[in-house]
Amino acid sequence: MRTTINKIKTLTFSILYLVTVIGCNQKNRDKEAVNDTQRVTSQNVLSSVIDAINSEINNGDYGLIDRFMIIQNDELLADFKYEQDYETIVQKYDTTNHQYNFNSTVWHPYYKQTNLHTLQSVTKSITSILFGIALDLNKDYNVSNKAMPLLAGYDTDFLDKRKQNISIEDLLTMRSGLQWNEETDHNDTTNDCFRLESSDNWIKYVLSKPMDTIPGTRFVYNGGGTVLLGKIIRTITDKRIDLWAEEKLFEPLGITDYYWKETPDGEIDTEGGLYLKAEDLAKIGLLFLNKGKWNDKQIVSENWVNTATSPLIKDVKPEWKPDMGYGYQWWIPKYTKDGKSSIYAGNGYGGQYLMIAPEYNLIIVFNGWNINDEPEKSTWSVLQDRIIPILQNK
User: Which residues, at least 6 apart from 136, have a Cβ–Cβ distance to it below 8 Å?
Assistant: First the structure.
């Protein structure tokens, strides 16, 4: 494995700036000095654990990792890039050139040899942001609205009254009540995500699924519900979600390069089809750390950010971790007794993680592609098990 390392040690300059500003008083300078000292101490404490994690990645402990970034207090503390010979690695698998063949190196993990990396289900978290913006700007709609009237035009049996009662919030929190199996291996032909991605009309496929419980009562991981959310955004805004994203999210954040998979029926894959550079994915994290603001402009409301990243549902994945929470398409692996999120994250197949710890003003980005073999260690646990304990004990 060849590794290119660009570890940036940033210099703090806030104090120097402050002393040149006319009218700054000593109290402000003292406060800034304390903050500056805290930042430097935090960086020094993290340095050794960052180096250790990087060494373990190079050693193969975490499997196939493509990128590892850490940002704290708006400063890039580490940025590691790893080159993998995917052409050789996938030779023993089916490498047919198809956008949903995950062993096709034309499509995965990078889009056609560019720097755009598949995000897989982190796409869901970004879809949630775009839904929040749509509701912020269209006050006639809210999360209590029923979903089916916003999905008109499909010849689907709605005789089951439970289906008619699915709300937008039920879709956002994976509690639609639709019968759905996405727990098996992705290549299992009984997996609904596999079947969805193999179908010609994604919306129709999701809407054709029978109900198995009352909406709003039980969490079942369901990418099909996110597909419906993408269609509802189009209904509300009269724009396909990729165009909505470009105008309302990507352009304000300076994200100029992206790719989004298109489905056979002309919709956009909102459950897992977005590709971004790691640097641009980090911008999404910074947007949320700043409560939806970017360059003093409110991109998505603070209320949406707070709600989307709160543990609205608890203990959704006991096989992963007790008390795992879920919000509006965001995972909350750690939260306090009063429901305040200590960590929230976007989580994607193969090792795509955008993890945010608000208390420490910290963002971690991982891109990987562990789809055929289980690594010894998981990057999912790095923030909670390796980084935060160091910061707590500094």
Answer: 300, 301, 304
Q: Which two tokens stand for residue 215?
A: 């909406």
Alpha carbon distance 342, 334 (integer Å): 5
User: What is the full per-residue pLDDT of the chain (394 aa) written as tens digits?
Assistant: 434 444 433 333 332 232 233 334 444 455 455 455 456 556 678 999 999 999 999 999 999 999 999 999 999 999 999 999 999 999 999 999 999 999 999 999 999 999 999 999 999 999 999 999 999 999 999 999 999 999 988 766 667 889 999 999 999 999 999 999 998 888 888 999 999 999 999 999 999 999 999 999 999 999 999 999 999 999 999 999 999 999 999 999 999 999 999 999 999 999 999 999 999 999 999 999 999 999 999 999 999 999 999 999 999 988 877 789 999 999 999 999 899 999 999 999 999 999 999 999 999 999 999 999 999 999 999 999 999 999 998 7
Beta bridge partners of 186: none
